[in-house]
Amino acid sequence: MLVSNKVRMNRLFQHGKCLDVAIDHGIANEPDFLIGLENIEGVIKNLIAAQPDAIQVNYGQADLLQQVAGRKPALVMRTDVGNAYNVARHREMWAVLHNPDEPILAALQMDAAAVVVNLYLIPDEPGIFRMCVENIGRLRQACDRYAMPLMIEPLVMAPAGQGAAYGSLGDVEKIVPLVRLARELGADIIKADPTENVEDFHRVVEAARCPTLVRGGGKGELAPVLAKSAALMAQGASGMVYGRNVYQHDNPSRVVKALMAIIHQGASGAEALDIYQQG
Description:
By secondary structure, the chain is an alpha/beta fold. It is 42% helix and 17% strand. It is built from eleven helices and ten strands. An eight-stranded parallel barrel has the order 1-2-3-6-7-8-9-10, surrounded by eight helices. A two-stranded antiparallel ribbon has the order 4-5. The longest helix is centred in the middle third of the chain and has 21 residues.
């Protein structure tokens, strides 16, 4: 990794750990993802006050974070859009960069600390997989030129009809090769699904050979989410990228506080739940 690249990485990771709260779900064009994000200005204002390490958004909402003066979370900017999260299967599956000619220009203009892109593996859909690889190639070249960390999100998706919105799978035998591929393509950071058996997640970390953040997925009951998060940190995760498991809960700021305790202070799931309940 370039020394200049580490400047941005140091903004994102505190002592090698990071909580990135993702609120980039509007790009999915799926109504269920927007529950809790209706007032995006209020959501970002409250998250800034809660002080996670980073907030992940698309270009069109990044101004709400970056126009705020003073201490604030780092910006992680999504660079791609696709149709893989829609409930109905499409005749044509696709994933494209927002700006294929200058794919990180917006991130540079908005002073992002990292950019993120998907790597979809969907059964019987090789076309979208190829698009993702091409997207990553364009991004990697631009990131190298401008010392921008590249977060790749390798997703092993379920076949059509197995859960809403192409639910992703926690099959370690499929996740590990895809994570390894993401690293081979030049990932500086991996954002990966948790494995079905939490005790297998160390294999994902080993395949990544770079900071590995856990993807949150759909909203779950808070106590199990916190317990699982602590267990994943014990397996070598560098932190979390949680969206719906933050902003769709009753008190997102308290969820951030609980997760930050797990990630940065080594709190157990039970201790983090106490932190949430005590406010």
